[in-house]
Amino acid sequence: xxxxxxxxxxxxKVKATELSSLFKSGVLKNIKLFECIDRDCSVPLTAKxxxxxxxxxxxxxxxxxxxxxxxxxxAGKKEHIDRFLLEKKRVNELLQSQTIQTFAxxxxxxxSKKNSENSFHKVSNTSxxxxxxxxxxxxxxxxxxxxxxxxxxxxxxxxENSIDKSEMFNISFPxxxxxxxxxxxxxxxxxxGKKTLNELFCPISEMFPFNKFKIFYGLAYxxxxxxxxxxxxxxHNNSIHLYTNKEKLLNLPEKETIKKALLDNxxxxxxxxxxxxxxxxxxxxxxxxxxxxxxxxxxxxxxxxSESLGIL
Length: 312
Prior knowledge:
Blueprint: E1 4-7, E2 12-15, H1 19-24, E3 34-35, E4 44-48, E5 58-61, H2 77-96, E6 102-104, H3 117-129, H4 135-146, E7 148-149, H5 152-161, E8 168-172, E9 192-196, H6 197-200, E10 201-203, E11 214-224, E12 229-234, E13 240-245, H7 246-249, H8 255-264, E14 268-281, E15 284-291, E16 300-304
Parallel strand pairs: 6-7, 6-8, 10-11, 13-15
Antiparallel strand pairs: 1-2, 1-3, 3-4, 4-5, 8-9, 11-12, 11-14, 12-13, 14-15, 14-16
Helix pairs in contact: 2-5
């Protein structure tokens, strides 16, 4: 359960421990006017047990078909498990019915609103409630969304549990715009279209596809380069480099796996959505995986070696 949420009524963050007094005093009136604080998530939340003397007040998702995203920092362990099982069931049902479904990039985060928490949520709510569409258009949109998976852990689970990996998927992985590096200058290929699992997933090795979107994976050591940064060093190709924010990594759902890898200096399996590019640096050129998302951690998924199904 989320310990805090964004109150649409008050236009600010509210802690679960504050709910009882806020509703009792009349400051808050509607238990359903809340959103997840994680700006990449923002799912609608409901305040529960605000008048209860037997259990503490808490925030729960309003609709089980619209769970927290896979990289949400605010969701509890149970919520992440429920989301994973729900998505896995849906993907398996579509596979069994031989329906071609879509693997897609995380929804684009609106970076222009990073520094304005209130403006983010105002725009978010407007987009959710406004703009009436025709019923047929809305129906088609819902059907397509039902067939779309944006969670990397679900894609990995589908890949690892597939026997021949020949299942066909639509893919849609536009790269987010960012200040550095300039993604447009790379002209990354194969971000859309139809792919089998074998074509989509690519092991990190000495030979690698260049300038093409893939879900790369391989054994890697995690190393703290400084207080804020972690480098991901792939065992089977030490020329490809990936760096990301330590604090963000240690807040991911698989944070225990990441912590153990850092403490014990043992390799983990890293999955990454992106393209390998030659990046120009001041002290020379370097091959790097340019991730689909500007915030690198949103394009990553970590598994302990013991959890793998013989993929490596």
